[in-house]
Amino acid sequence: MIERRKGIIVNVGSITALAPGPWAGAYSASKAALHALGDTLRLELRSFGINVVTVAPGGTKSNLGNSSAAKYDQIHDWKYYKQFEESMRARTNVSQGPGATSAEELANKVVASVLKKNPPAFLAYGQFSAILSMLYYAPLWVRDYFYRVVMKC
């Protein structure tokens, strides 16, 4: 890409990197790291004609989400977390529920955006992307309230 002075790198992060909630710490942290890498690469590679786009999907129906739900079947072995089973299941189910974006719809949106003459540096799309984007800018007590009271976590 550098030799051609042209190219695009697309990193798929997550909207949870902006407003991480309970029961997804490692996932949210890994996506936040990917967002930071994308921000850095975008600046470093711009002078070579390479665009970097970070995609932050909201709730998207996927095999990852489905396999996440299956892990709770072994929760009887989780001495300290058993009391949170309902909340943990709800967290997983909400991202895979009826309002979740289909993977095909997300892919179509990403491809259309990335192929534009001037692709966006950041693309948030799908279920919960608007509310979690707003929570990113809100004071922490607002975010905590949202997860504790609204999401019952």
TrEMBL record:
Membrane spanning residue stretches: 122-142
Pfam families, sorted: adh_short
Source domain of life: Eukaryota
Entries under InterPro entries matching the protein: NAD(P)-bd_dom_sf (IPR036291), Sc_DH/Rdtase_CS (IPR020904), SDR_fam (IPR002347)
GO CC term (a single one): endoplasmic reticulum
Annotated GO MF terms: oxidoreductase activity
Keywords per UniProt: Membrane, Oxidoreductase, Transmembrane, Transmembrane helix
Family: Belongs to the short-chain dehydrogenases/reductases (SDR) family.
Protein name, as recorded: Uncharacterized protein
